[in-house]
Amino acid sequence: xxxxxxxxxxxxxxxxxxxxxxxxxxxxxxxxxxxxxxxxxxxxxxxxxxxxxxxxxxxxxxxxxxxxxxxxxxxxxxxxxxxxxxxxxxxxxxxxxxxxxxxxxxxxxxxxxxxxxxxxxxxxxxxxxxxxxxxxxxxxxxxxxxxxxxxxxxxxxxxxxxxxxxxxxxxxxxxxxxxxxxxxxxxxxxxxxxxxxxxxxxxxxxxxxxxxxxxxxxxxxxxxxxxxxxxxxxxxxxxxxxxxxxxxxxxxxxxxxxxxx
Length: 261
What we know:
Layout: H1 3-20, H2 22-53, H3 58-76, H4 81-93, H5 99-124, H6 138-147, H7 151-174, H8 178-194, H9 200-213, H10 223-252
Helix pairs in contact: 1-2, 1-4, 2-3, 2-5, 2-9, 3-8, 4-5, 4-10, 5-9, 6-9, 7-8, 7-10, 9-10
């Protein structure tokens, strides 16, 4: 199946579920947040342990393992907002759906992802693994660093992050087997995490876990700073993953047949 056919079929399924069975669409969105939060927590715990033994390497271990959460989302059929940014931008560019509807579905998917992250974050906040978490923990320092960036920095880094995420998602679509999807997704995802760029659902994960588990909460993480980060990063993700990947690939696949994916 070509990329055009795969995206059209995926969008059609998403729209049908969204319109006809909102509780199940919500559940798939919540599951995506939960899967990514669990992957983030595991990557954070492993990265923190390595950081204690080899300072400076913890963030790289975190980056290398973070993609496990996205891989789970793809193979288990959950709904991730930042992937939907690409799917629905592609579909809007090809006139399969209207732009207004595309943005609304992505927005609600984002809310559902956040619910899943909060549920897992609350559970991990009372777990033994994160019981001694404080502002020096790897996840705490990552969270603090994100909210301390400038608005311009957040926006540009968000565009880069979701550009990379949707490189992985398109690679996953074009890969036929589960094993090939793994190698198309996990190493590519490590690029955006290793570069410390901004992905709204990933930010939900690291920040919510920090807010529930860290004692005390890092001083930089106020309601205002966290909210600003999430809003700016969401917009940047839509530009990078939606317009620059979904829109561009929709245009590329209107070209000569020999060059269509």
